[in-house]
Amino acid sequence: MVVFEKASKRYGAAGDGGFMAVADINLAVDRGAIMGIIGRSGAGKSTLIRMVNGLESVTSGKVLVDGVDVGALGAQQLRDLRRQIGMIFQHFNLLSSRSAFENVALPLEIAGFDQAAIRAKVGPLLELVGLSDKAANYPAELSGGQKQRVGIARALATDPKLLLSDEATSALDPETTQSILELLKRINSELGLTVLLITHEMDVVKAIASHVAVIDGGHIVESGRTFDVYTRPQHDTTRTLLSSALKLPPWLSSAIKPQPSAGDRLLVRLVFFGETAFRPLTGRLVAELGADVNILAGAIEEIAGEPFGSLVVSYSAEPDVVARADRFYAETQLKTEVLGYVA
Ligand code: ADP
Ligand code: MG
Fold first, then answer.
1. Is residue 150 located within the same domain as residue 286?
2. Do the strands 194-199 and 162-166 form a parallel or antiparallel pair, or are they unpaired?
3. Of 221, 243, 265, which one is at a domain's C-terminal end?
4. From the CB of 21, is ligand 1 less than 6 Å away?
5. Number of structural domains in the chain
6. Model-level pTM?
7. Does the beta carbon of 13 sit less than 6 angstroms from any atom of ligand 1?
8. Ligand 1 pocket check for 148: Cβ under 6 Å
9. DSSP assignment, residue 290?
10. What's the rounded Cα separation, in Å, for the pair 262 and 124?
11. E strands present in the chain
């Protein structure tokens, strides 16, 4: 649906005078997918997503939407393309002088629909986003979540096949964020809309994106199925962005030593995937090693619909204990990672 081919964007002068905001991006977003692009502030996310609807032009390479080279379009063709691409924003970008209804109606007015057609379209859209009772309210009278729902309804007004989301939940509290993400997921499955979303929050990606690309300094440093990237991050940037399960509490990470001193204990992370996530392996590990096992950190969560857990334990670094533990891991096919040693 969307293909980036060595797409780059330089702001300002060519050569050393300019600034390379995104560089050599190769990426494909499949039809019907929800793809997340995650990176910290300044990584090039907004530039990247704005290249899809031509709000930023590429300086080299290509962005193709349904096989059409966005950079090669004339002004009229670009307007036609934008009608097929909805966009939502961090700060909603609603017109304050227009009611919720009138904000959603705006793209339809621009597209030349008559009043009857607009009414027939806007009503169901407000219903879809759960705002039928707010049609006459102005943005100032709406909560952040409600404003974003208006933004979503407006983005859907011209029946786009692709929705671009630029940090659409970043200004919202966690609970509202979840409800907006659920709405996006429902729109994706019910309307078959492809969604490309950018965010700096791993939790957003984890909640709804089937695939993710990690962007850092204008480069994609890692991409793949969300579950794979999340559970087996390959790049330091990804590890830094990970929010929960794989992150150690600070007191623990600062206590880790790469080499043992006499009497130190081995620190091991156990990783639980899929259905094994809920198997009572921890109890069996304790039984196997005796009461010597300390559980230091852990979490079980759901990533793109699949369970995933991580447990950090310490036990004696004595060779016979370590051998027993390793035998247990081999038998149960538990994935483990030695993090180091602790006193
Ligand atoms: P993100 O959305 O990940 O925070 P942006 O795509 O907005 O990142 O910006 C990427 C980099 O490009 C930043 O360093 C930013 O300062 C720079 N940048 C963005 N827009 C412009 C512009 N119009 N002119 C010059 N530099 C820009
Ligand atoms: Mg941005």
1. no
2. parallel
3. 243
4. yes
5. 2
6. 0.84
7. no
8. no
9. G
10. 70
11. 2-11, 19-29, 34-38, 60-65, 68-69, 85-89, 162-166, 194-199, 211-216, 219-225, 265-273, 294-303, 306-316, 335-342
Residue with CA nearest ligand 1 atom 21? 11
CA distance 188 to 162: 10
- What Å distances lie between residue 13 and 23, 219, 328, CA to CA? 15, 20, 61
Structure tokens at 86: 């909805």
Q: Pull the structure tokens for residue 97.
A: 């002088």
Q: Report the separation in Å between the CA atom of 245 and the middle of ligand 1, taken as the mean of its atom positions.
A: 31
**Structural domain for 118, as ranges:** 2-243
Ligand 1 centre and the CA of 56: distance in Å?
11
Ligand 1 pocket member 199 (CB < 6 A): no
Tens digits of residue pLDDT in 235-247: 888 887 775 556 7
Could you give the CA distance from residue 100 to residue 97 in angstroms, rounded to a whole number? Answer: 10
Question: What letter represents residue 343's amino acid?
Answer: A
Which of 243, 268, 283 finishes a domain? 243
Answer yes or no: do 72 and 162 share one domain: yes
The per-residue pLDDT for range 164-180, each reduced to its tens digit, is 999 999 999 999 999 99
Q: Distance, CA 54 to ligand 1 centroid (Å)? A: 16
